[in-house]
Design goal:
The chain is an alpha+beta fold and 376 residues long. The strands form two sheets. A seven-stranded mixed sheet has the order 1-5-4-3-2-8-9, with helices on both faces. The protein has a two-stranded antiparallel sheet with strand order 6-7. A hairpin with a 5-residue loop joins strand 4 and strand 5. Helix 6 crosses helix 8, helix 13 crosses helix 15 and helix 15 crosses helix 16. The N and C termini lie far apart (52 Å). The chain binds two DNA strands through helix 5, helix 8, helix 11 and helix 12. One of its GO terms (biological process) is nucleotide-excision repair. Belongs to the type-1 OGG1 family. DNA repair enzyme that incises DNA at 8-oxoG residues. Excises 7,8-dihydro-8-oxoguanine and 2,6-diamino-4-hydroxy-5-N-methylformamidopyrimidine (FAPY) from damaged DNA. Has a beta-lyase activity that nicks DNA 3' to the lesion. Its main location: nucleus.
Length: 376
DNA sequence: CAGGTC
DNA sequence: CCTGG
């Protein structure tokens, strides 16, 4: 079967599919080794229905090709959606040259490798990262796909591969149980997923909102980052690390650095970040007013987050993405055969990043406009 | 132990 | 604590 692909000019140093789709941000892109393309299901634009989307980067590495299966009449909508999903309004070259290299020597010997932060669907991001706790990427990938195939809706089957939607909070509450999830190998996270889905259904009803996406976006409205994180941590299985992942990748709070063991190691080893008694006391006082934060936040890790924000600025989360990729190197993703394979780290030759027309034409983000959360 | 949370 | 590499 062949499709009519749309095209988007984008240099590989600005976007490298292998480096962003299989590096632990998203867990549901399927890589077809033979066709050298990626596919998944996603909601396009403001729609609630899921479509199968196929992506590939051509040999010259300067064109991103895309198609939504069975939706060929609406190529522009997909193009607009992908520009938001990949955040093509943000130039990595600009961040390297004008922000990170001048302020951080570690970036001087690095170059943009097409590693960027995605704007993912927040509900899927929340559940995916609940699954990520104390876990490895290949199992997280299996779990996310298991949620879709067991509790999502069948969208279509292509070349023998069945594509499902990511289940909504209602679908999870009505179709899944903790016992069933345990059988499927979710371990102790089974309870977190069920309870989070239930609470989201309840929260949405109280807010009179039907869409998971819209609801989670609505908690950012007129809210500071600290309040958004407090709200996210009201869900079971969501601590500061998971909440920050949702803020960064699901709610596009670009300055948020999720602090895990790796980032913590980088911070101490390469940046000599360490909190003194005053710092920690200040943070404890600050979170005293927020009952859940007070309970869940580790002041020492939160201090690292703040110091890295100070170091890297309003796109600190993106800087973390770059360094993190370097730290853990290649990782695994799923393929059409279901096998989890080691991924080759996709290095880019040192070419001058070309700011494409699409980059200059800043994407209209009107329907995504969420009041920028203030970060200190 | 694995990109934490209870 | 679940599970698996």
């Amino acid at each position: 079967m062949s499709y009519k692909f749309g095209k988007l000019a984008i240099n590989k140093s600005e976007l490298c599919l292998a480096n962003v789709l299989q590096a632990g941000q998203s867990f549901r892109w399927i890589w077809d080794e033979k066709l050298n393309q990626y596919s998944t299901t996603m909601k396009i634009g403001q729609q609630e229905k899921y479509s199968v989307v196929i992506l590939r980067q051509d040999e010259e590495n300067e064109i991103l090709e895309f198609v939504a299966v069975g939706d060929c009449g609406n190529q522009d909508a997909l193009k607009t959606h992908l520009m938001k999903y990949f955040r093509l309004d943000v130039s990595l070259k600009h961040l390297f040259d004008n922000v990170w290299i001048p302020s951080d020597k570690a970036f001087a010997k690095l170059s943009p490798q097409g590693i960027r932060i995605l704007a993912q669907e927040p509900w899927e991001t929340l559940i995916s990262f609940i699954c990520s706790s104390n876990n490895n990427i290949s199992r997280i990938t299996r779990m996310c796909n298991s949620l879709c195939s067991n509790f999502g809706n069948l969208i279509t089957t292509i070349d023998g591969v069945a594509y499902h939607s990511f289940p909504t909070s209602e679908e999870l509450t009505s179709r899944a149980t903790e016992a069933k999830l345990r059988e499927l190998g979710f371990g102790y996270r089974a309870k977190y997923i069920i309870e989070t889905a239930r609470k989201l259904v309840k929260d949405k009803a109280e807010a009179n909102i039907t869409s998971d996406t819209t609801y989670l976006q609505s908690i950012c409205k007129d809210a500071q980052y600290e309040d958004v994180r407090e709200h996210l941590m009201s869900y079971n299985g969501v601590g500061p690390k998971v909440a920050d992942c949702v803020c960064l990748m699901g709610l596009h709070m670009d300055g948020i650095v999720p602090v895990d063991v790796h980032v913590s190691r980088i911070a101490k080893r390469d940046y000599q970040i360490s909190a003194n008694k005053n710092h920690l006391k200040e943070l404890r006082t600050k979170y005293n007013a927020l009952p859940i934060s007070r309970k869940k936040i580790n002041p020492e890790l939160d201090h690292i987050r703040l110091m890295l924000f100070k170091k890297w600025g309003s796109y600190a989360g993106w800087a973390q993405g770059v360094l993190f990729s370097k730290e853990i190197g290649g990782t695994s993703g799923s393929t059409t055969t279901g096998a989890i394979k080691k991924r080759k780290w996709d290095m880019i030759k040192e070419t001058e990043a070309i700011v494409t027309k699409q980059m200059k034409l800043k994407v209209e983000l009107s329907d995504l406009h969420i009041k920028e959360a203030k970060i200190d």
